[in-house]
Design goal:
Number of helices: 11
Structural class: alpha/beta
CATH class: Alpha Beta
CATH superfamily: Aldolase class I
Helix content: 40-55%
CATH topology: TIM Barrel
Shape: globular
Distance between the termini: 40 Å
Number of strands: 8
Strand order of the largest sheet: 1-2-3-4-5-6-7-8
Order of helices and strands: EHEHHEHEHEHEHHEHEHH
CATH architecture: Alpha-Beta Barrel
């Protein structure tokens, strides 16, 4: 499963990128507004870090506006995927953009019916919002399992991107459900790394090594 950061903060991406675990970035208007910077400048900076998949969302609500914005966003960098909302206009725009070779992340998906339509119009990604469904008393991960099953039945190439991930358990459940991608905030990704037993184990190993008083022999460079 691929792991994406849900952020528009280049510093968060820089902190994770050297680890080799990051596969992409998703942004949205809320995250971009939080940074208080020019949208296009921010996108170019994120793409310049080498991120192979960067989702950037249109803000138009009509088909022509989405097409105009989507084409412009895609022209900024080869890594950009255009995010369109799950609306009738969004479906029509996704169909057109996909036919032009522009990769679309169809977002704000809350039902299997919507996900089926996303695949029918050629979306590259479909983004079910797991956490928001949980907030409304529904099982967000059950939706991910439904979508994965439907896509496998018909061999749709659309990838399932589990979004609105709130905690590490969501990530594990998304992986078990067969999601292609999970996108999460920086704080959640950080939690995937840490476990108290790992910290305790490392502390004990270092203390035992100190007691042994045996310096590690490291060969000099070039030898």
């Amino acid at each position: 499963m691929q792991l994406f950061l849900d952020t528009a903060n280049p510093e968060e991406i820089r902190a994770v990128w050297p680890t080799g675990i990051l596969d992409g970035v998703t942004t949205n208007p809320t995250l971009v507004a939080k940074e208080g910077r020019d949208f296009e400048e921010l996108l170019r900076e994120i793409c310049a870090l080498g991120v192979p998949s960067v989702s950037a969302e249109v803000v138009a609500t009509d088909v022509d506006g989405m097409l105009r914005e989507g084409r412009h966003l895609a022209s900024l960098h080869p890594s950009i995927y255009v995010k369109c909302p799950m609306t009738t206009a969004g479906l029509a725009a996704t169909k057109r953009l996909s036919a032009e070779g522009i990769r679309v992340n169809l977002t704000l998906v809350f039902s299997a019916n919507q996900a089926l339509l996303a695949a029918k119009v050629g979306a590259a990604y479909v983004s079910p919002f797991v956490g928001r469904l949980d907030d409304h008393g529904q099982d967000g991960m059950a939706l991910v399992r439904e979508i994965v099953g439907i896509y496998r039945n018909y061999r749709f190439p659309t990838q399932v991107l589990a979004a609105s991930i709130r905690h590490p358990v969501h990530v594990v459940e998304a992986a078990k459900a067969g999601a292609d991608i999970a996108t999460m905030p920086y704080a959640v990704l950080e939690k995937l790394v840490h476990h108290p037993l790992t910290d305790l184990g490392l502390e004990r190993f270092l203390k035992d090594w100190e007691k042994a008083r045996k310096p590690m022999r490291v060969a000099a460079p070039g030898r």
